[in-house]
Design goal:
6-stranded parallel β-sheet; about 375 residues; Glycosyl transferase family 1; 2 domains; Glyco_trans_4-like_N
């Protein structure tokens, strides 16, 4: 039996789907992974997981009819050549163009893994609202023949149902992408007020609110330390390094750029922060929980699934820097609560978000669990 797994970024195939590729291989499936712009080192990593790799042109951000049509025809050609029995696509472009191309493959089961709604589903100007309608139309066309549409939180699932994109009986929810708890050791907390945000430089990640809150907190607690880790992003919602420097004029936040290994940064913080506007289910929060860190995030789809208020952290209103700062100050003034919340974070991630449990559920949904 042949399966094709499609993502946009090659790194996502091993960072987010690596354990899934391993379990697919262990069941004897012939796996081919597709993504765009892989370097040889990345191809080697993907192949070491038991998958073949084919590069496909995918422009991850923005609308480019010429490039998107090229993506569609490339996928259709690959599908025709490979004749897969199962296709699993995740993130917006692979789902839309993969789903449409899969309609030309006979006897093939197509599964979509919606890892978040992203910028395209955020209401605003007439242009954003028009974009949302277009994306909803494309999703509906792409998912018409899907076997199942898999979501990472119930809120995103309900949006698709309410907008008539997919019928309820075709939907299901899993606990995010999961996290390999063996890859993240519990590390002791220190007594210093050290906050960390790991995110791509996007407005919707709450970067602006994080910096504004840091400015406020440091007026009262100048020794508080705030770190930001993450790469630039070409999305329309991206924050340039120039804008970041302007936002951070008071140097309240230490921006260290991108990293290939988040563990040293998580281990170096005592409170993990993600003031995001929306998520599928944030992997960085799960990694911080696995390391044993209290969580401060927003009460929005995806994020709210990771926190029980007062148990392993707190939820605050999105786009509210004042509330974010108030809760940061609470953490500084209640250090005696850190350890209990840290322990609870680890317990929650082991119970709900272990990658092996998530992948077992995915295999069951795709009816590939016979040999597990």
């Amino acid at each position: 039996m042949k399966i094709i797994v499609i993502g946009a970024l090659p790194s996502s195939l091993y960072n987010f789907r690596g354990q899934l590729l391993k379990i697919l291989k262990s069941t004897g499936l012939e796996i081919t992974s597709l993504a765009s712009g892989a370097k040889q080192e990345q191809i080697n990593t993907i192949e070491s997981l038991g998958s073949k790799y084919i590069d496909v042109p995918i422009i991850r951000n923005g609308l480019s009819p010429t490039q998107d049509i090229k993506t569609f025809f490339s996928l259709r050609s690959i599908f025709k050549q490979q004749q897969p029995d199962v296709i699993l696509a995740y993130t917006i472009k692979p789902i839309i163009w993969g789903g449409l191309a899969a309609r030309f493959v006979p006897n093939c089961r197509f599964y979509a893994l919606v890892t978040g709604l992203g910028f395209a589903f955020q209401k605003g100007s007439w242009k954003k609202n028009l974009l949302m309608k277009l994306v909803a139309f494309l999703y509906k066309a792409a998912l018409k023949n899907a076997e199942k549409v898999i979501f990472q939180n119930p809120d995103n699932r309900q949006v698709f149902i309410d907008q008539g994109i997919v019928p309820e009986h075709k939907t299901c929810v899993v606990n995010g992408s999961g996290v390999d708890v063996t890859h993240f050791e519990i590390k002791p907390l220190t007594s210093e007020p050290r906050f960390l945000l790991i995110a791509r430089l996007l407005g919707d990640k709450g970067i602006r609110e994080y910096i504004a809150a840091a400015d406020m907190v440091k007026q009262q607690y100048p020794n508080a330390y705030f770190q930001l880790v993450g790469p630039e992003d070409p999305s329309p919602d991206g924050i340039s390094l120039t804008e970041l420097e302007q936002l951070n004029a008071n140097h309240s936040v230490d921006y260290v750029g991108a990293t290939n290994d988040v563990r040293p940064y998580i281990e170096g913080c005592n409170i993990f922060v993600l003031p995001s506007y929306h998520e599928g289910l944030p992997r960085t929060v799960l990694e911080a929980m696995a390391t044993g860190r209290p969580i401060l995030t927003t009460d929005v789809p995806g994020c709210r699934e990771t926190v029980v208020n007062g148990y392993n952290g707190f939820l605050v209103e999105k786009a509210n820097a004042d509330q974010l700062a108030e809760q940061m100050i609470w953490f500084i003034e209640h250090q005696d609560s850190w350890q209990k919340m840290a322990t609870n974070s680890r317990s929650m991630v082991e119970d709900k978000f272990d990658v092996h449990k998530v992948n077992k559920e995915l295999m069951k949904i795709m009816e590939l669990d016979k040999d597990i």
